[in-house]
Design goal:
Low-confidence stretches: 20-24
Distance between the termini: 74 Å
Structural class: alpha+beta
Helix content: 40-55%
Mean pLDDT: 82
Shape: globular
Strand content: 25-35%
Number of helices: 20
Number of strands: 18
Radius of gyration: 27 Å
């Protein structure tokens, strides 16, 4: 007994000391918004990369592909995880357990290529490693060089030290490059000097960070939880700015017309109130939610457009198995829904912008040969279907049940470029070449089972979209394997394609809530696979 008490006291003291050391060593989370400049066009953060990886590895597609990719699941051992969070163990495990990540789009640059104007975004990846600089610098330099070789298929790299340690890799004879900076425990990787410099200045307090945006802070608090894997934000001003770049493409114009862009940005700013994104785990893989906040008056005028019709699955006879994409519009009264869209837009805009947006709206149906949308929609019964049955069709066609064939014919374009095919009570509308390709696919293909797709979302909605996601999923898995230093062989790629073919669907529901329009998408890997594709944007 004389020896047991001192021994027990010693053991308790060791336990207390270890607990205190672990508490001291495990880093506190930082707010990654402090590291992104306030004028970022897009801001995205991932505060728990380990949870993201676990969600991806738990997806049905990833597990089915594991024998092909030869990837191992991340360790779930609590002791090793705790040690890694405390900074003990191999560097990859430590970074995996401790790091926080953010992605920001700083700006948009235009350049000419092949006699056309193209857009190149400026991106920066921000990683707070919570790890000493001496330990992460060699690994960061190696990772940046590997990323440059993967993205550009060969590059020249150099290192220099100034206010931070820089690693720059560029392509000979071109202006494309990847530049990284190591500043203490922070690593910033971008595709331009400006992108990296902007993030370093925000972190140092030289320029305002996006954390100074009260709307971002408010939205993040409202839409995120402990189970959120990722969060993204676009401010109202930048939502309008991005729309001004995308909208001209809808009327087949290249971006770059400054007067048009300014008009679109000012007009969109009166309607849009910002965009928020979250990602979380779902039974099929990942669920993404986008909230497009709108002016309250616009929301109220959009309500008729989201009144749902009675279920009608008859149109599935025109949807062949293996389709490329299909969107189902189950609006109760298509013509009323169209009028409410026009009313919502014109409510906040002056005459000229309202007319421009009306043109954009009308163009969404003119691609199917409809010259008089209101008359055409009155002659059609819900639901309406836009279908791209296979990759052979360059564009989608419109499929709907007809209630007044003569009225519909009078609302169609008389151009030979478009074709209307009437099948029983239905009509197929679109460009002649697309309708021809669609008819061929429908005749050759097997009719899809609607339950297979409707159950994917868990519930039906007024607007539902199902997209063949095979290419994106295949690319995502192959890219991750290649980044780990191994390239899938042709037989392995073929096997992977067969696995993905059974579950490579992205299902989206679009609905109206009190704040605006919400889009909920369930897919194998969600927007994480889209973000990964940015690694190949320079090729």
């Amino acid at each position: 007994m004389k020896f047991s008490r001192p021994l027990l006291a010693l053991v308790l003291l060791v336990i207390v000391l270890v607990a205190v050391w672990l508490w001291w060593s495990i880093p506190s989370k930082v707010d990654m918004a402090d590291y992104a400049p306030a004028d970022s066009l897009v801001y995205v953060e991932f505060n728990n990369p380990a949870a993201v990886v676990q969600a991806i590895q738990n997806s049905n597609v990833w597990q089915a592909a594991a024998p092909i990719t030869q990837t191992k699941a991340a360790s779930s051992n609590r002791l090793s995880t705790a040690a890694a969070r405390a900074g003990l163990g191999p560097l990859p495990a430590v970074l995996f357990a401790r790091a926080q990540v953010a992605l920001t789009m700083i700006g948009m640059n235009t350049f000419e290529e092949d006699n056309s104007l193209k857009v190149r975004p400026e991106f920066a990846l921000i990683v707070e490693t919570h790890t000493a600089k001496w330990r992460i610098k060699p690994a960061a330099a190696a990772a940046i060089k590997q990323l440059a070789n993967f993205t550009y298929s060969g590059s020249m790299c150099s290192e220099r030290t100034a206010d931070a340690d820089y690693i720059e890799c560029s392509v000979a004879g071109g202006d494309r490059k990847i530049i990284g900076a190591v500043d203490g425990s922070l690593v910033v990787i971008g595709n331009s000097d400006n992108a990296v410099r902007s993030c370093l200045d925000a972190r140092r307090g030289v320029r305002p960070s996006i954390h100074s945006d009260p709307e971002m802070v408010k939205v993040r608090a409202n839409v995120t939880s402990d189970k959120t894997l990722g969060f993204g934000y676009v401010s109202p001003a930048n939502s309008a700015k991005l729309f001004s770049w995308v909208a001209p493409l809808m009327v087949l114009q290249s971006p770059g017309d400054q007067q048009l862009q300014q008009l679109l940005a000012v007009s969109a700013g009166k309607v849009l109130r910002g965009v928020a994104w979250t990602a979380s785990s779902a039974p099929q893989g990942i669920e993404d939610r986008f909230l497009f906040s709108l002016d309250p008056g616009v929301v109220s005028r959009l309500q008729p457009a989201f009144a749902e019709s009675e279920p009608d699955l008859g149109f599935w006879q025109f949807v062949p198995e293996g389709f490329q994409s299909v969107t189902i519009y189950s609006n109760k009264e298509p013509a009323t829904a169209w009028s409410s869209l026009s009313s919502a837009v014109s409510f906040k805009l002056d005459a000229v912008p309202a007319a421009l947006f009306g043109t954009l709206l009308k163009s969404s149906l003119s691609v199917y040969g409809i010259s008089n949308p209101k008359e055409a929609l009155t002659a059609l019964n819900p639901p309406l279907l836009t279908l791209k049955p296979s990759e052979g069709a360059a564009e989608a066609i419109l499929v709907a049940r007809v209630n007044d064939a003569e009225r519909l014919k009078q609302s169609l374009s008389d151009s030979k470029e478009f074709t209307a095919v009437f099948v029983n009570d239905y009509v197929l509308l679109g460009k002649t070449e697309n309708v021809r390709a669609s008819l061929a696919a429908i005749k050759q293909g097997v009719e899809s089972d609607p339950k297979k797709y409707l159950n994917y979302l868990g519930e039906s909605g007024v607007i539902m979209t199902f997209t063949n996601d095979e290419d994106r999923v295949n690319n995502f898995i192959a890219t991750l394997v290649q980044l780990q230093g191994r390239k899938l062989s042709p037989p392995e790629l073929e096997s992977l394609h067969k696995v993905v073919r059974t579950a490579g669907i992205a299902a989206t529901e679009t609905k109206l809530n009190a704040f605006g329009i919400e889009r909920r998408t369930r897919s194998a890997f969600g927007q994480f696979s889209t973000i990964t594709s940015l690694l190949q944007s320079g090729r």
